[in-house]
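3.2 Worked example (two chains)
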Amino acid sequence: QVQLEESGGGLVQPGGSLRLSCAASGGTFSSYAMGWFRQAPGKEREFAAAISYGGGSTYYADSVKGRFTISRDNAKNTVYLQMSSLKPEDTAVYYCAARRLAWKIRADEYEYWGQGTQVTVAS
């Protein structure tokens, strides 16, 4: 059983940056691909970024490509989402998720989820 805990959310102005962290415990972190998803009010949860269990492969939704960077530190059991050039439409609750082996972009293919962290982009 893997437990995930996100942190780093908050209020930021348009054009600003934030770094989200997701700390994992209870499993072999380096065996899990990790994903970041987000859910805005009244909308479905959507894929943002994913990284392979070794960190050598990443994938981004078109909406965040070039602005967000996913990375991981397997020694620290942590995955990060560096967000820059933030826009009001990036406002959402951000969730990290874990699944064994290969990353996926569908939320229902992830086994473990954190509780989420709120990101609000507003002036």
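3.2.1 Second chain
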Amino acid sequence: QVQLVEFGGGLVQAGGSLRLSCAASGRTFSGYTMGWFRQAPGKEREFVAVISWSGGSTRYADSVKGRFTISRDSAKNTVYLQMNSLKPDDTAVYYCAADRRFLVTVASTYLYWGQGTQVTVSS
């Protein structure tokens, strides 16, 4: 079992920044691909970013490429999502997830999920 808890959501104006954190506990954190997903009201959960277990490989959704950065600190069992140049369309509940498979971007394939943190971007 892997337990995930997200932190860092909040209300920010368009153009601002937020950093989300996801703290992991339980099984060995370093062996897992870690992903960030988001879900806006009335929409399906969508892929945002993913990082490999080593931290050496990442992928981003086209909608956030160049604005968001995913990183991980294995010593702290934590994965981060730095979000810059935020837009109202980024408003959603953000979830982190963990899975053994390499750089998966499909939500349904992830085994472990956090409870989510709300990000609201005002115009």
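3.3 Remarks
The mean pLDDT is 95.
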